[in-house]
């Protein structure tokens, strides 16, 4: 091509919207509507999971990023499966999911497992325990446990509950999900304790008045922490993306900003323990 033609060709490419550099691949991040992890409020994506995701995205400059609300986790993972380059965060590993999606080599979230929820006065009367035994609590028939009908618990907790099936101090509410109604009932001393995740409690109490007297306590018979992962479509593009995401995760999870995104949603009685296990356990996974 004659040298004089180069400026003309470049001008035409600009006019037609073409670029002399190749376009970036775009990752569509499929988010579940699961407050306070990832959700939409006032037409904006928010939640501690979104804060963490933005830190990850900042380490992936070779990709463009878009977010898409996919409903619950089941629908979100189906969207990821359909590809061609979709990713999600906060997905639990199952054999079925590992067959159809590419998982990160390190987890995204390090979170407390389900805990005992009670009033602060009760927590104080129990001696402010770092952990508490469900078996021990159930031996005291003056302490009323409220369960959510249809809610699934870990096998270890369910086995304990099954041994006490029909006990008068174990009651069930028709609310299938943890709710403001249950918190109000607890606050008014209609029962002694229930189960929930710490971040669930924080999310709801922040929207309610006079709810600063609620505490969550880890359960001795339950695992202390759970982990969930980033996933991408099981395509060549998805495998490349999840490798880059894993590298980004190894870097950003070392930062206080990343750790504090979740930490802001747990009670003060849990933070020392969380930081200790974050350093000694979470940061070792995948290294």
Automatic annotation (TrEMBL):
Keyword Signal: yes
UniProt keyword terms in alphabetical order: Signal
SMART domains: PBPb
Entry keyword annotation includes Signal: yes
Domain Solute-binding protein family 3/N-terminal: 26-269
Gene3D superfamilies: Periplasmic binding protein-like II (3.40.190.10)
InterPro entries for this protein: CHP02285, Solute-binding_3/MltF_N
Position of the signal peptide: 1-23
Transmembrane region(s): none
Listed PANTHER family: MEMBRANE-BOUND LYTIC MUREIN TRANSGLYCOSYLASE F
Protein's name in the database: Solute-binding protein family 3/N-terminal domain-containing protein
Biological source species: Paremcibacter congregatus
A Pfam family that the UniProt record links to this protein: SBP_bac_3
